[in-house]
Amino acid sequence: MSAPHDEPDDFAPSNTPGYKPTAAKTAEEYAKLDAEDESLARWKASLGIIPGAADAPATGPKVSILTLELGSPTLPAGKTITFNINDQAALAEIKKNPIVIKEGVEYNVRITFKVNHSIISGVRYIQIVKRAGVKVDKMEQMLGSYGPHPKGEAYVKNFDPEESPSGMLARSGTYNVRSRVIDDDGEVYADWDWSFKLAKEWS
């Protein structure tokens, strides 16, 4: 469900001047590309591209987002804040009962995802935060370039640290967040809403 009052360009990925996305290639096509180039071979190996390997079936989404987690060195020992993006009941519960984030602390967002087929690049996480329907923050972070994991395992991407607001005004009200994972071509791989409140301590 869309958050209210979204501006049309809220989730438009930022454009890098002079950058033009290239046509998408499958893992098999990349494996065959300039096979004699050693530096390119190392880059392809870093993406999990194995020359001669059979390409994964190109069906379904290229990327599956599994979880979103909030991490902070100030979190109590053993406490984690993790959302299962595919559990609609849990996401609905978080919207009704917002998570509590400690004010004035450093935290970071990390996501777990799988690349199902092809090579991804230009995929980014965009987060819009609103309070009382007014946008108060936007975060945009690039995932990077990845190929399907040789063992079918998930990737974990830690984004740059942020600092939570502080003060009595910041602690009043609920912050509504809409998160989206999207690529340069406008293909959306995940889109979900959640909410949080700020407090003097984690809870």
Automatic annotation (TrEMBL):
Per UniProt, the keywords (alphabetical) are: Cytoplasm
State the family it belongs to: Belongs to the Rho GDI family.
Gene Ontology CC terms, in alphabetical order: cytosol; membrane
Q: Which SUPFAM superfamilies would you find in this protein's record?
A: E set domains
User: What is the recorded function of this protein according to its Swiss-Prot or TrEMBL entry?
Assistant: Regulates the GDP/GTP exchange reaction of the Rho proteins by inhibiting the dissociation of GDP from them, and the subsequent binding of GTP to them.
The highest taxon in the source lineage is Eukaryota
Q: Single Gene Ontology BP term? A: Rho protein signal transduction
Q: Where in the cell is it found?
A: Cytoplasm
Stored Gene3D superfamilies = Coagulation Factor XIII, subunit A, domain 1 (2.70.50.30)
Q: Where is this region: Disordered?
A: 1-24
Pfam families found in the cross-reference section: Rho_GDI (PF02115)
Instruction: Write down the species.
Output: Crepidotus variabilis
The primary site where this protein sits is cytoplasm
The molecular function terms of the Gene Ontology recorded here are: Rho GDP-dissociation inhibitor activity
Q: What is this protein called?
A: Rho GDP-dissociation inhibitor
